[in-house]
UniProtKB/TrEMBL annotation:
<comment type="pathway">
    <text>Carbohydrate biosynthesis; Calvin cycle.</text>
</comment>
<dbReference type="Pfam" id="PF00316">
    <property type="entry name" value="FBPase"/>
</dbReference>
<dbReference type="InterPro" id="IPR000146">
    <property type="entry name" value="FBPase_class-1"/>
</dbReference>
<comment type="similarity">
    <text>Belongs to the FBPase class 1 family.</text>
</comment>
<keyword id="KW-0119">Carbohydrate metabolism</keyword>
<protein>
    <recommendedName>
        <fullName>Fructose-1,6-bisphosphatase class 1</fullName>
        <ecNumber>3.1.3.11</ecNumber>
    </recommendedName>
</protein>
<feature type="binding site">
    <location>
        <position position="92"/>
    </location>
    <ligand>
        <name>Mg(2+) 1</name>
    </ligand>
</feature>
<dbReference type="InterPro" id="IPR028343">
    <property type="entry name" value="FBPtase"/>
</dbReference>
<keyword id="KW-0460">Magnesium</keyword>
<feature type="binding site">
    <location>
        <position position="116"/>
    </location>
    <ligand>
        <name>Mg(2+) 1</name>
    </ligand>
</feature>
<keyword id="KW-0963">Cytoplasm</keyword>
<feature type="binding site">
    <location>
        <position position="116"/>
    </location>
    <ligand>
        <name>Mg(2+) 2</name>
    </ligand>
</feature>
<feature type="domain" description="Fructose-1-6-bisphosphatase class 1 C-terminal">
    <location>
        <begin position="202"/>
        <end position="329"/>
    </location>
</feature>
<feature type="binding site">
    <location>
        <position position="243"/>
    </location>
    <ligand>
        <name>substrate</name>
    </ligand>
</feature>
<dbReference type="GO" id="GO:0042132">
    <property type="term" value="F:fructose 1,6-bisphosphate 1-phosphatase activity"/>
</dbReference>
<feature type="binding site">
    <location>
        <position position="212"/>
    </location>
    <ligand>
        <name>substrate</name>
    </ligand>
</feature>
<feature type="binding site">
    <location>
        <position position="279"/>
    </location>
    <ligand>
        <name>Mg(2+) 2</name>
    </ligand>
</feature>
Amino acid sequence: MATSVTLGEFLLGRPGDFQYENTELGRLLNAIRLAGKVVSHEIRRAGLVDITGTIGSTNIQGEEQQKLDIFANEAFINTLTNRDIVCGIVSEENEEPIEIRGSDNRNRNKYVVVMDPLDGSSNIDVNITVGTIFGIYHRVSPIGTPVTTEDFLQSGNNQVAAGFIAYGTSTMMVYTTGNGVNGFTLNPAIGTYYLSHPNIEIPKKGNIYSVNEGGYVHFPQGVKNYIKYCQREEEDRPYRARYVGSMVADVWRTMLQGGIYFYPESTGKPHGKLRLLYECNPLAFLVEQAGGQATNGYERILDIKPTDIHQRMPFFGGEGEMVEKAMQFIAEADGGE
Ligand SMILES: O=P(O)(O)OC[C@H]1O[C@](O)(COP(=O)(O)O)[C@@H](O)[C@@H]1O
Ligand SMILES: [Mg+2]
Ligand SMILES: [Mg+2]
């Protein structure tokens, strides 16, 4: 149930929430909040206006771009640029980083944003929850100089804030700055987000596992063994299987109801499908801040030093014990302890 605290008040009410200038965080998140409302409005009209389907081009990942992918991408890039607070953006829909020199054209802004403007694109036309994922970093290149790729290839540990917007039964904005995770629900009638999910903590002893089992035959043996373990009639198992096919929705459910969500590597996808910079890192930060764990099956996602802005990474995230169990099966199958 939503409280009467709005996102704006919440931001101003927690001065220590942000290691840099708090009003800058406010301006950053306000820009994201605004762009999210623009996208939410458009999504809610999907089917009534010509916003579903593809536009006939593919992105750097070789995926067909949906009209809403492009709409969301432009909405976020324009809003962040107009707010004059970021010096660069990496987006799933753009091959190269986008340099933003700022209104005085002197590269004085401090933050870079990595984003997946529309997550769960395959679910757009079938009216299932989709989302926007974002991560925010303080630049590493000197202020006053053009943004560099190194500003984006920082490990997830360096995120100063991260979150997502979910466009589902309601529109929600969930974020962290390293002081816990809070969720806000949009009241579309007045366009205001209210605190509805304070201090989110992943429940212990979850009983849901979430993976696209359609790829089972191509998964590594350790992952197969873990899936069989989840399905065995023993102790508190079999676990329930849930899979939406939108990472935002599957991770959000995992944060609220517990369990584990994973997208492993497979013979066809040696590094899995999900992108480290703008899918794995922001959601790993949220999962950890909610008391869970997020790894690639071997190491903490947030410790990984990216080498490419669009690189993929296997992802195992959720309740700590379940993630460790999955890693144990992977290690055993690899011949380790
Ligand atoms: O169809 P699959 O192979 O299960 O993949 C689903 C996954 O792909 C994604 O849709 C990839 O994200 P995009 O839609 O942003 O490209 C994830 O949201 C989701 O978890
Ligand atoms: Mg995505
Ligand atoms: Mg996407």
